[in-house]
UniProtKB/TrEMBL annotation:
It comes from Clostridium tertium. InterPro entries: DUF3037. It comes from the Bacteria. This is DUF3037 domain-containing protein. Pfam families: DUF3037.
């Protein structure tokens, strides 16, 4: 089965965002599913001015519209057109695609990656699983990537997680980690990014924001030599944007 899906984000004027739902469309069966977060306290912490009760009613309305027979009986559902309606505080990500034999299992798998904070820590994907997930989505989109380990200026092996064209990605996981150790790791990678800048545009990806001085120190260290810092949730949109721009040129 071929599945299209897009992540619904709630975005502040500061450009910070939080994932609040995922829209799935099974192209083989025309089944449409809209899943939302269930831990609303996290959204309230993200924006303490939001009216959660009203917001939930609004999302329930979206779910009812998407999953109703209206599109089946009268109008064909096109995700690309539907997501264009949302362009203010709520907006959908790029449309991703993948294949599965089990639609229900597929939904759960993607929820764990994009709505990860709805799950207990032990059930959330780890760093390796998140990187693997990103590679899977790139493969489904036929985006070429490399996992080669280029040599540095001193002939040492540079272990990027994956390389897409001129962009080299390195993932940092901060959740439940010792930030003192990560400060030293960040310094090493900052040095590497600076050395490699003539060959690759290094992009540092991270999983979660943490409200501590040590976290801010790490972000400051990484941001100076990096081409870009990205949250994990925004990585594929960045890659797709560059990929689509390249296709338009040719």
């Amino acid at each position: 089965m071929k599945i299209l899906f897009s992540v619904l984000k709630y975005k502040l004027i500061t450009n910070e965002s939080i994932n609040i739902g995922i829209l799935f469309h099974n192209l083989d069966t025309d089944q449409r599913v809209f899943e939302t977060i269930s831990k609303w306290s996290r959204l309230k912490s993200f924006d303490d001015e939001i009216d959660i009760k009203y917001f939930r009613i609004m999302l329930d309305g979206i779910k009812e519209e998407i999953q109703s027979n209206l599109f089946t009986d009268t109008v064909e559902f096109y995700m690309k057109e539907y997501v264009k309606r949302f362009y203010n505080e709520m907006r959908f990500s790029e449309i991703y695609e993948d294949y599965t034999e089990d639609f229900i299992e597929f939904i759960e798998y993607n929820k764990k990656n994009f709505l990860r904070y709805d799950y207990e820590k032990k059930d959330r994907p780890n760093k390796t699983e998140q990187i693997s997930y990103m590679k899977r989505l790139m493969k489904a989109k036929e985006i070429e990537y490399s996992v080669k380990n280029p040599l540095g200026t001193h002939q040492e092996t540079i272990k990027y997680d994956y390389i897409v064209g001129e962009y080299a990605f390195k993932f940092f996981s901060f959740e439940n980690k010792n930030l003192d150790i990560l400060i030293h790791t960040a310094k090493a990678w900052a040095y590497t990014a600076e050395e490699m800048k003539d060959r690759y545009k290094t992009i540092f990806v991270y999983d979660v924001d943490i409200n501590t001085n040590k976290f801010n120190t790490i972000i400051d260290i990484l941001s100076k030599p990096a081409y870009k810092l990205l949250k994990f949730d925004d990585t594929l949109d960045f890659i797709l944007d560059k990929y689509n721009a390249k296709k338009r040129i040719f």
